[in-house]
Amino acid sequence: MKIATYNVNGINSRLPVLLRWLEEAKPDVACLQELKTPQEKFPEEAILNAGYKAIWHGQKSWNGVAILTRNLEIQEVRRALPGDSEDLHSRYIEAIVNGITIGCLYLPNGNPAPGPKFDYKLQWFDRLIAHAGELYKSGAPVVLTGDYNVMPTDIDAYKPERWVKDALFLPETRAAFHKLIDQGWMDAVRTLHPNEVIYTFWDYFRDAYGRNAGIRIDHFLLSEPLKSKLKSCGVNRDVRGWEKTSDHAPVWIELNL
Hints:
By secondary structure, this protein is of the alpha+beta class. It has a single domain (2-255), classed as Deoxyribonuclease I, Chain A (4-Layer Sandwich), CATH 3.60.10. Helices cover 23% and strands 25% of the residues. The strands form 2 sheets. A 6-stranded mixed β-sheet has the order 3-4-2-1-12-11. Strands 5-6-7-8-10-9 form a 6-stranded mixed β-sheet. Helix 3 (116-137) packs parallel to helix 4 (171-181). The longest helix has 22 residues, at 116-137. The record marks 218 as: Important for catalytic activity. This is Exodeoxyribonuclease III. The active site is at residues 106, 147, 248. One of its GO terms (molecular function) is metal ion binding.
């Protein structure tokens, strides 16, 4: 079973890129972030014509998450992270697919830091940690994937010294990520490639992609029942080089179920 995560950076403006990638990569499940479209303008027909069912939580101009499945039934569980009924950002959606609970998330960026946006990032992180803890303790097979907006270690950034004051790299952000990991989750990519330089995001400026001046912020976390099932993983790096593409590249794992 191949599961992918992809921050599309605007699903309607990048639709040709998304459809091309779905056709070439053929993931069984695709978790998307930054749809940047209201609920009613999600391109459901085009996704269906590509062979995928979809559930999504849209928001005008910002955020937005979706889970797509190919030849698999999808049962929505929730479309908001518990803990704050007043938080209207569409940043989390959860479903059961093929017996696996899949949480697709888009964690807040948090810049500029310090400030209200960084405070919101850490508060959202706390809610994620609380919900993830319940999921992990349930003993169910769970995948938590998406754009975490966190570089966990120095190896996850090209020239990490340039990021020391950025919300994605501040000690509080990395500490929150490691607090989450310490519940028992497996960082799938780092487990299979512990020392390899792997990036998932390259800025549009200063030829970052051409210079491979990237960062790794899109992650897969696996619960205990799935750890032994992890077969392979990777980044579809070439997609970042396509015309009118997102600044992220798709990341994928393969589970031997």
